[in-house]
User: What shape does this take?
Amino acid sequence: MVLITSLSLFSFKGVSTSGINIPHLDKLVHFTFYFFATILGGLSYKEIYKKEQSLLSAGKIMLLFSIVYGMVIEIIQYSFTENREGDFLDFLANSLGAFLGFLVIKHLLSKRVF
Assistant: This one.
């Protein structure tokens, strides 16, 4: 989450991306960050609270946390940064990544991997 926060709030104004021309690449990055954050967070949460939490409930907690966290980051970008912009489509990409990460956790649970 520290990496996501850092990359979401720091300015990359001087970084040249002229060699990379992939449409909507930033949305894919947002999706990927929150997809893996939800999976890793759910697995970590389950590991910390082995007896108290099931993997499914840990996944639900991380899904909710990731969606709220993504919304807060976009609000902070919109309100408090000069070189970053809050974007509703970024929030949707964050949320979709988190939701699909949760579905992966749910799938792992149905396979009894953990």
Q: What stands out?
A: The first helix runs from residue 2 to 9. The two ends are 23 Å apart (CA to CA). The mean pLDDT is 85.
